[in-house]
Amino acid sequence: MFYNTVKETGSQVRHSYEEAKNQDDKVLLFFIHNRDDRFSPEQVWRTVFDTEKVPLTSIRRSITTLTNKRLLEKTPFTCMGNYNKEVGMWRLV
Question: Is 76 helix (H, G, I), strand (E, B) or coil?
Fold first, then answer.
């Protein structure tokens, strides 16, 4: 799901929607291939994506989208995130 908060139009908005869908698909596939584990957004980001090109916020958006679709669920577990703060962990439903 792409949230057009900057009012993109035309081919630019179509590209953004497609890119967001591809990210959602990659995140879901990662969880399917690792169905018995739980992961933080940071772990998914570092494992699946080129962190130079894909912002962490995009992975958080994908995880939120997949959670809202009831494909992922937030667990009660946490781990240390990128900024020495505890962050939530998700798993495949």
Answer: strand
Residue 10: burial class (beta carbons within 10 Å; 0-12, 13-18, 19+): exposed
β-strands 86-92, 72-80 pairing: antiparallel
Residues 2-50 have pLDDT tens digits of 455 555 466 555 554 456 568 999 999 999 999 999 999 999 999 998 7
Q: Token pair of 74, please?
A: 């937030």
Cα separation, 13 vs 2, whole angstroms: 9
Q: Of 86, 76, 84, 82, which Cα lies nearest the Cα of 38? A: 76
Which residue segments constitute the domains of the chain, with CATH numbers given? 10-92 (1.10.10.10)
